[in-house]
Structure formats: structure tokens, C-alpha cells
Design goal:
Number of helices: 4
Order of helices and strands: HHHH
Shape: flat
Radius of gyration: 15 Å
Oligomer: single chain
Helix content: over 70%
Strand content: under 5%
Length: about 110
């Protein structure tokens, strides 16, 4: 259950990170509100996950999910560069997330 909570926390991390762009640095009230709500949900779920998972592993996976999702959506939504190197390094983060999951008894 903790891994599921961590996954959902990571998805909400993507939401709030992308929300920063849509809220223009939290200056637009409606997107800013959604960003803050997503941040709160993400943090609460992360806190619940670390009740059963090592904090270092959980934090690394949480930030990894957020980084991969945010970088990918940056390419898809905001025309950020989709260079081969950038995609390769996003892939390295994915390998790290999967590796941490496997070595932490997450199967």
C-alpha cells in the first residue's frame, strides 16, 4: 500500500509542478489554488508512505516520479526541447526509480 501511496504522491507532485507554469508563479488565483492543493496532497501522501518505507528511498522515488513526469509534460505541453540526450537522461531517472523499488522489497 505504501508504494501505491508513493506513486500517487508522485503524480500529485507532477500536478503541482506543472501548476506552477499555469499559475504564472502563483499569480493567477485559480491555477495557484489547484497548485497548492496538489502540493498539499502530495506531501500528505509522501508522509504516509514514509511510515512504512525508508525515507531516503521514498523521497528519491517521489522526486524521480515528479522529475520524469514534469520533464515529459514540459516537452509535450510547453515545447521544451526533446533532444536525444534529454530523453536519455529522463530514462536514467526511470531506471533509478525502478531500481530503488526493486531493491527496497517493493515487488
Amino acid at each position: 500500500m505504501s508504494w501505491y501511496l508513493l506513486l500517487v504522491a508522485g503524480l500529485f507532485e507532477i500536478c503541482w509542478a506543472i501548476g506552477l507554469q499555469y499559475s504564472d508563479g502563483l499569480s493567477k488565483p485559480v491555477p495557484a489554488f489547484g497548485t497548492v492543493v496538489a502540493l498539499g496532497i502530495s506531501m500528505v501522501l509522501l508522509a504516509r508512505a514514509v511510515e512504512d518505507l525508508p525515507v531516503g528511498t521514498a523521497y528519491a522515488v517521489w522526486t524521480g516520479i515528479g522529475a520524469v513526469g514534469t520533464a515529459s509534460l514540459g516537452i509535450a505541453l510547453f515545447d521544451e526541447p526533446a533532444t536525444l540526450a534529454r530523453i536519455a537522461f529522463i530514462g536514467v531517472i526511470v531506471v533509478g526509480i525502478v531500481g530503488l523499488h526493486l531493491v527496497s522489497g517493493g515487488h
